[in-house]
Amino acid sequence: xxxxxxxxxxxxxxxxxxIYMKDGELPIxxxxxxxxxxxxxxxxxxxxxxxxxxxxxxxxxxxSFKHVSPAGAAVGLPLSDxxxxxxxVDDLGELSPLACAYARARGADRMSxxxxxxxxxxxxxxxxxxxxxREVSDGVIAPGxxxxxxxxxxxxxxxxxxxxxxxxxxxxxxxxxxxxxxVTFEQGRNELVINDKLFANIPTVNKxxxxxxxxxLIISLITLKYTQSNSxxxxxxxxxxxxxxxxxxxxxxxxxxxxxxxxxxxxxxxQVLGLQFLDSIGRADRDNxxxxxxxxxxxxxxxxxxxxxxxKVKPEQFTAEAKREWLDKxxxxxxxxxxxxxxxxxxxRGYRSGARYIAQPGGxxxxxxxxxxxxxxxxxxxxxxxxxxxx
Length: 391
Hints:
There is one protein chain. By secondary structure, this protein is of the alpha/beta class. The protein folds into 3 domains: about 5-165, Cytidine Deaminase, domain 2 (3-Layer(aba) Sandwich); about 175-265 and about 325-385, Cytidine Deaminase, domain 2 (3-Layer(aba) Sandwich); about 270-315, Helix Hairpins, CATH 1.10.287. Helices cover about 35% and strands about 20% of the residues. It contains 14 helices and 15 strands. The protein has helices spanning about 35-55, 80-85, 95-105, 110-115, 125-135, 145-155, 210-225, 250-265, 270-275, 285-295, 300, 320-325, 345-350, 365-375; strands at about 5, 20, 30, 60-65, 70-75, 115-120, 135-140, 160-165, 175-180, 185-190, 230-235, 240-245, 335, 355-360, 380-385. The strands form 4 sheets. Strands 3-8-7-6-4-5 form a 6-stranded mixed beta sheet. A 5-stranded mixed beta sheet has the order 12-11-13-14-15, sandwiched between helices. Helix 1 packs antiparallel against helix 7, helix 8 runs parallel beside helix 13 and helix 13 runs parallel beside helix 14 (about 365-375). The longest helix is centred in the first third of the chain and has 21 residues, at about 35-55. The protein is globular and about 60 Å long.
């Protein structure tokens, strides 16, 4: 198959729309559904991300994409009981490593992952398919599917769920093209290999990066490689926990990603774990309620006449002081940036969200101030010397 007609482009008025190969055949097979233009943008970016994560770590990987940027990315490490609970998978029994990877990728920022497109590094198994089946999602791309897993996915969305199989041996041409406003752009593909060799140049006083942090930094940087720039990624425990994408200002990236990382940690607090939802409240509505409860608009769920529609028992207000006390317990977070930090305010903001290991290109005229800020907090920072812009 050399080309595939799509329903429409980015918007319904953008017709005709298709994907095609100038030479050779498409490296994909649509096993179910009719994926659209944005679906394929998410699918191909997501597939590259998980393929690289698997190659870099040796672990199954998954990502949850929305609008050509990942909402989450992770490798298949086992889940703690707390993570199983906040990811709403504690009722699914034993989970495969691939299912753990997707639970982490989906669970990092469940608000953003709503209606995602999934990419899996390995053949989709039944454990992962059962998890996907009950989530609001547009589709999945993987190198293959177990027969039972494929049937489970085909039953989703009244039989219209998008299931794409990709040839894992496919390798694109080293030169890529993109057309904008009738003008064709050409560049070499970003074939940069991301591994811990990038962490050799450490200008900070503290130079100790444990193996777990190296994996998290690798996850952060590979995630950034496929995130719309400017971008910043916080990672911990084998997964991205906060991704800031497409911001014009570096500090706004760091704040956005940091606020998401904070929310991920706050969801593990006793105050949130103790919320007693009405049995009729589904997972998506619980996610929305939790987001409001831990944010500044908490009265939207705590006000009289409102909490009764969500909770069995009215929760206590999660005060700013209590939140800060809990957030201070989150440490050993890895922080990656797709370009250099131009000011030390990024370090200060990252530190407040638990960042203790940082990887960024370096090269700012204010590098000395950034290094000093890291030294003041005992942070290890590596200058990778590489930029990871993605557009």
